[in-house]
Amino acid sequence: MNERIATGFTANSTAAAVIDGIDGHGKRAIVTGASSGIGVETARALAGSGVEVTLAVRNTKAGQQVADSIAENIGRAVSVGRLDLSDLASVSEFVRAWRGPLHILMNNAGVLAPPELQLSRAGWEIQFATNYLGHFALAHGLHDAMAAAGNARIVSLSSNGHLFSPVLFEDINFAHHPYDPYVAYGQSKSATALFALCGTAHWSGDGITVNAVHPGAVAETNLSRHMDPETLRQLRSGGTYTYKTVEQGAATSVLVATSPLLEGVGGRYFEDCNEAEPVDGDQAELAARRSGVAAYARDPDSAERLWDLSIKAIV
Fold first, then answer.
1. Residue 239 pLDDT
2. Distance between CA atoms of residues 295 and 162, nearest Å
3. Measured between alpha carbons, how far is residue 259 from residues 16, 17, 83, 255 in Å?
4. Which end of the chain, N or C, is more open, meaning fewer C-beta atoms within 10 Å of its C-beta?
5. CA dist., res. 285 & res. 283, Å (int)
6. Shortest CA distance to 122 belongs to which of 131, 138, 114, 134?
7. Is 241 a catalytic residue?
8. How many CB atoms lie within 10 A of CB 10?
9. pTM over 0.85
């Protein structure tokens, strides 16, 4: 069992603090979902260290506004590319347009709890399609670019929401069971955590590592746009979660993407800027927790099963 990684940073650390002193010049990064929320701060921190950043976004107009703002703040140009992760054709188009090596792939974009069941064009439940499968297809398509970079890192945003559910391999798309938006969200984030295992297992020999991160609860984000406003208000005022600023919310992602402590390290799950504690229990006990990584999200057999499913889904 590998010893858990402790960094000296905390839940209160900011993206600027964790990247302070790290020189990113000569490196290139893609940040998905970087037109709002912690994606903006993630891109800003990377670009501020010298990394050449591309914002991969559905709304390129909003993305360009963010790029212009970052460039104005740091004096360094930021690129924008269109990417709809729920549409595998859009992912393929983005991949075909990419040129040159890629050192950091930040799988940041996500969707949370649409109230009604939605399916992607390919027939996948929309949270699984967007939060996990589209990012898998993006990483798979950019494999050669990352292998060319050497020591490339993929950082995939999971969530403590993975504690709501494992991957429901027998019914991912809720064809045979009633749709529950939070169970669907949970399985998409469990899949993201498992990708850290299978991605690293398959690609570490090419110099590519994959880690998953939980950014924490961040109030200033569009992720919760599908939630009932009153429910959201109660959550934010009830003390269930300790909410972070966007600067704090981006810190764990930026740290895992850039820290020398993570050189060559993959297959891990991080929260509050440190590797998370493994937790076990029945599903009700896990769903009541606010931290830790479940056994089913770190199971190598499930990770390999997910890999096989994902390869078949994107070809």
1. 55
2. 11
3. 12, 11, 27, 5
4. N
5. 5
6. 134
7. no
8. 12
9. yes
